[in-house]
Amino acid sequence: METLVVGAGAMGRWFGTVLQENGPESAHLSFCDTERARAVAAADAVGGEAVTPETATAADLVCIAVPIPAAPDAIESYAECATQAIVDLTGTMEQPLAAMQSATPACERASFHPLFAPENEPGNIPTVVDEGGPTVDAVLTALRDRGNDVFETTASRHDELMETVQARTHTAVLAFALTGEAVPEQYHTPISAGLADLADQVVDGEGRVYADIQTAFEGADDIADAAAEIAAADRATFEQLYDQAKTARTGGDEES
What we know:
52% of the residues lie in helices and 17% in strands. The chain is α/β, with parallel strands linked by helices.
């Protein structure tokens, strides 16, 4: 299976590794990136070859693994290379799926969102198969063979939940990272130690990636408003807010 991976960053490399290690035996990879050196590095690390936007040719499968804002343009630019299927790993679903429907109406189409960094695999992968077929099935099999929980969702449901899973969560953790002072380990409670660990994990990433997520999904203002309400609350109001939070966490569970 000839595969063109557009975007040779961490997720593009990971997808290439998935196909090399768990995909069809005949898989052949090409990596294309706006930075030629990154495509070469990915090809050397994973196997395959580096191509340029000008030399990228037809492939059975095109995988779009670019930053969120670049997805629509990348899909439009490389759609003509896809002969059987096109998929994306960009992190949103409604926008790239709409772009794929418009640009590749005759192809298999799917959107995957690995909810983990490559080094933390296996993990959860919400998936929308917009138009199925043997090529997308081969990708699904490869992902599952690595122990990942690949589950079906809808694009709107995914993007709605990412407001909490990503935008609200990152806002809360980064706010703590910006305001929390360094605390000797022996002073930490289990809660503060856990939050400090989360802050360390988040700031170990790339600001560009987190900025893309915050721009793509709403939710940050909700955290800011709630924090301001808590900060301004008197004792009675604080207790009411605490009870509201408890109810939200214990009584608001629903289907994933």
